[in-house]
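Batch manifest line 263
LIGAND: NDP
JOB: complex structure
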Amino acid sequence: MIRYDYDKSVAVVTGGSSGIGLATVRLLLENGARVAFCARNAARLNDVAALLRRDFGADRVLTGAFSVLDKAAVTAFAEQVRDTFGRCDLLVNNAGQGRISTFETTTDDDWRAEFELKLFSQVLPVRAFLPMLREAQGAVVAVNSLLAYQPEPHMVCTSAARAGVQNLLKSLSVELAPDVRVNAVLLGLIGSGQWTRRFAEREDQSVSRAEWYAALAEKKGIPLARLGEAEDAAHAIAFLGSRAASYVTGAQLEVSGGLSRHI
Ligand code: NDP
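JOB STATUS: finished
ARTIFACT:
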């Protein structure tokens, strides 16, 4: 197993009850961290937390059921993390989802909602956890998308918002240095939440997940010829958040199977 040194560390993962967030929570726990994570759906969050507490110990897992867009809840969670764990070494801003719409089908409200989700899912957690991150000389890892550099017309507002997020992260990496490192992972197609949902809506229900994913990888021309796994993204996040990346800030690491076409 690849080891990262998270002993004595505390990590916070937004959107930790599913997909990439959950894989990240698990990987960080396996590597010695205590982990706090949030999501909106309390039932799913509690189910996931019960399994993790069984596997890793109740005192290493803390959860909060709220939206990352709820400023008061995010602030209260930061206080709870301080009260419970006393510190925060790593903030993983992962919560969210993409929006499929072209310019013609995107309403003004859609644009506002998408920009609020993408930007404030970074702004609010960073602001709330910043004092602890500074004290710990910690790190922020943002989960972003290749769409930031390679926009897709069928995801027009998500692409534009993701470019804005990259811009914000670059500024943060300068303003928060040398105390806090700020990096991003740029995802291509990862076979977690968003693609699981699209698989469930496939036209031909007789096609298996493996077949559907393989056809999708071929259609998209992914050089490594498969969709990524949630764990592929989690490893990139764990690396960027770890002391092994202590001289890396303001960077983006692509996890796309080579799908990226920019240099
Ligand atoms: P999942 O749907 O599997 O997981 C998303 C997680 O975020 C869930 O725990 C969800 O729980 C939580 N979440 C969503 N919105 C909020 C919110 N407002 N506040 C708090 N928690 C929230 O998605 P993935 O693992 O596939 O994706 C993770 C991230 O990576 C997302 O931001 C996504 O946009 C991004 N991404 C994914 C790609 C992919 O191919 N999978 C590609 C590019 C980017 P709940 O619904 O209960 O709140």
